[in-house]
TrEMBL record:
Reported function: Catalyzes the phosphorylation of the position 2 hydroxy group of 4-diphosphocytidyl-2C-methyl-D-erythritol.
NCBIfam families registered for this protein in UniProt: ispE, PRK03188.1
Enzymatic reactions: 4-CDP-2-C-methyl-D-erythritol + ATP = 4-CDP-2-C-methyl-D-erythritol 2-phosphate + ADP + H(+)
GO molecular function: 4-(cytidine 5'-diphospho)-2-C-methyl-D-erythritol kinase activity; ATP binding
Family: Belongs to the GHMP kinase family. IspE subfamily.
Protein name: 4-diphosphocytidyl-2-C-methyl-D-erythritol kinase
Native species: Actinokineospora fastidiosa
Gene (UniProt): ispE
Pathway(s) it belongs to: Isoprenoid biosynthesis; isopentenyl diphosphate biosynthesis via DXP pathway; isopentenyl diphosphate from 1-deoxy-D-xylulose 5-phosphate: step 3/6
Record domain GHMP kinase N-terminal: where: 73-154
Residues making up the signal peptide according to the UniProt record: none
Length: 312
């Protein structure tokens, strides 16, 4: 009898920006306790999973060469975690993962984490597993701190390493301009630089998170713009001093405020509305301070199937 090979499944997954990122001291396990507010953005990756005799990961799109395709790729880690969870051999999964990058690589927007979240959702459909998103979130947290958020999307308060999430009421669609830098930044290096800066002095700290949550509940981008804060920004700017110029250029172009996204080096500029974002993007693109400029909006949903037999 011929076995039926399921059709490939394609998943779209968002990037993230941190509206607020307060970093605590380094923990014994090397991680830092965080209090953060994530927003999922419409800048996305697409991940297709398929049954294949030649297992592995393939990456296409802008800067694809910079993504490792071996066992360190977070999408492959997701394949192995889900294989183990569902009683398959994690070393021999007959799965091929194709990642179409729209999210900048090593850009502080959770691109690698997003690919892992998309792989968990896609493979659950391909293998017809009876799993809830909360089951997947537990596996996701083992793969990386930002993986659970890209699974759920929306707007969320993150604590612990960033993997403990509570949804946040957000009343508005926010419009962003993103400035990609020429090269990525390593997340561990940026956290390490923050530890170094703190040992030497007192780099600025983000304020309390509550006002950020209140601003999101009212939905006024001007109020939110005043409250954007990221403890990693000083560290990212220390490693990549040119970011200061990028941040200034975005505000000069008419953004309400700018922030380094996560560990950087992508800079995210909050704008008053969609028209303003398009104007800021055009002006920033002409300023010659970054590699590429994109517009995006948020919040958007987390990883979801868009193609294949289980598509809605
Ligand atoms: O969890 P993830 O693998 O994405 O983290 C990458 C690195 O970023 C960690 O190895 C650690 O150096 C740093 N990190 C941290 N504190 C966090 C999250 C990440 O120090 N809460």
């Amino acid at each position: 009898m011929l076995a039926v090979v399921p059709h490939p499944v394609t998943v779209r997954v968002p990037s993230k920006v941190n509206l607020h990122l307060a970093v605590g001291d380094v923990r014994p396990d090397g991680y830092h306790d965080l209090t953060t507010v994530f927003q999922a953005l419409s800048l996305t990756d697409e991940v297709t999973v398929a049954v294949a005799d030649e297992p592995g990961v393939e990456v296409v799109g802008e800067n694809a060469d910079a993504v490792p395709t071996g066992p360190s790729n977070l999408a492959w880690r997701a394949v192995q975690e889900l294989a183990r969870f569902s009683g398959r051999d994690p070393e021999e999964p007959r799965v091929r993962v194709v990642i179409r990058k729209g999210i900048p690589v090593a850009g502080g927007m959770a691109g690698g984490s997003a690919d892992a979240a998309a792989t968990l959702v896609g493979l659950s459909a391909l293998w017809r597993l009876e799993v809830t998103r909360d089951d997947l979130a537990r596996l996701a947290a083992r793969i990386g701190s930002d993986v659970p958020f890209t699974l759920y999307g929306g707007t969320a308060l993150g604590t612990g390493r960033g993997e403990q999430l509570v949804p946040v009421l957000s009343r508005h669609t926010y419009h962003w301009v993103l400035a990609f830098d020429r090269r990525g930044l390593s997340t561990p290096k940026v956290f390490g630089e923050l530890d170094r800066l703190r040992a030497e002095g007192a780099p600025p700290r983000a304020g309390a998170v509550e006002p950020v949550l209140e601003a999101l509940a009212t939905g006024d981008p001007r109020q939110l713009a005043l409250l954007l804060g990221n403890d990693l920004q000083a560290a990212a700017v220390s490693l990549r001093p040119g970011l200061r110029r990028t941040l200034r250029a975005g505000v000069n172009a008419g953004a309400l405020a700018g922030t380094v996204s996560g560990s950087g080096p992508t800079c995210a500029f909050l704008c008053a509305d969609e028209q303003a974002a398009l104007r800021v993007a055009a002006e920033l693109a002409g300023a010659g301070v970054c590699r590429t400029v994109r517009v995006a909006h948020g919040p958007v949903p987390g990883a979801r199937v868009i193609g294949g037999e289980d598509a809605p």
